Amino acid sequence: MSEARRTRRIVVAAMVLAACAALVAGCATAGARTSVTTVARAPSQPSSPDTPATAAQTPQQRAEADAAAILAAFVVPPGASQLSGPPAGQGVLKKPFQQPMDPDLADDVSWWQAPGAPQQVLAWEKAHLPHRFSAGESGSGQDGQVVYWADGFTLPAITGVLDSRTLLVEAVTASGGKTDLRVDAQVTWIPARPATDVVPSAARAVTLGLLANSNSGLPGPVTITKPDQVRALAALIDALPQFPPGMYSCPGGFAGELVLTFRARPAGPALAVATVELSGCEAVDFTVGGKQQPRLGGPGDGRTVAAQALKIAGLHWRLPNL
Q1: What is the pLDDT of residues 304-317, one digit of tens each?
Q2: Contact between residue 170 and residue 121 where contact means Cβ atoms under 8 Å apart
Q3: How many other CB atoms are there within 10 angstroms of residue 14's CB atom?
């Protein structure tokens, strides 16, 4: 790897780590590709307007539609013209300056040339972008002899469906006092849970138990058999999304776990087990018939899920502290 390429990646990595510290989907440099849905928007293919999602759309379809809408929100600088692809001689603009480390990614991209210096064009865009966008990471770097500047802007996640939504604008100096731009709309989605990844309908009892480093002083397990409570506890677990993939910066400590064991009868074998982490990333481990399923929930949601389960069960337990 050349020293210039290494410099670019170091600068980008610093920007990425800042973004990952807030418990969002982890990021990687543009060189660390995963399987990605990428659409290049040529002048003859305008982005779709923002339209309401329909129940028939899959998470991937929602992500692709959302990426198109985010790209359409890019405000074209005065005098700018859209290009059909990466500008000649600007290899740095052939790939995004950063990319989430998530295999479920829709990346919608377009290229532009605008009058003015890169920093001026980026400042104009930041001032004119719709207010629903929040400023994200920004920075600059060098790839070979080319210096680039980049700004990121984010939208809130859509719980259980889209876990990151970002507009990236990268700028490099072009000839004639102009700036070449690469604009990416990156949206990551949470895969839908398969039909078999649920609490079996045969469940008629749920045993709740707390585990911690020291079980001293913790309440003993309690088995719930009231049909409405059993159904509500199963529905709570079944409604959780898959835990989003990626890299996370999670708090340390081991506060323990709340374990929900679903059975056909109180003394019967386990049909499904949901283990709710009360610290760390607070994911929910889930097995059905002894087979490990994808982790559930979202980063930092474990204690909330546990509190909801205790409320449904009518248990006034105090969750162990971190």
Answers
A1: 999 999 999 999 99
A2: no
A3: 12
Q: Where are the domains of the chain?
A: 3-189, 205-313
* Burial degree of 194 (CB within 10 A; 0-12, 13-18, 19+): exposed
Q: How far apart are the first and last CA of the chain?
A: 43
The residue type of 218 is L
CA distance 102 to 106: 10
Confidence label for 253 from pLDDT (cuts 50, 70 and 90): low
- pLDDT of residue 87 exceeding 70, the answer is yes
Of 265, 245, 243, nearest to 197 by C-alpha is 243
